[in-house]
Amino acid sequence: MGEGVFPTGISADDRFKTIKGLSDPNAPGQDFKVPGHVFPLQAMDGGVLRRAGHTEAAVDLCLLAIITPVAVICEIINDDGSMARIDDLVNFSKKHDVAFGEQLKT
Prior knowledge:
106 residues, 30% helix
């Protein structure tokens, strides 16, 4: 990461590289610029049983899948700026061919 690696940190590619770096337990903290455009969150120990939050849910899902407990969460907004609800997300998943709900089961 290092100083000057990302011109602004705003682009999707820059954010991806930052997230990938944050998921590396060996990445030194000085590699990341603060403040930035990616906001790290830390789940509470005990997960959703202790705090019913998005962060804890994301990490709990990783633990259930037996993968490194690092996740990315985001909120999807509609074209008018409102937060997407279930119906909006179903339509979004169809439009962009993204698995949603029952489709995630294997």
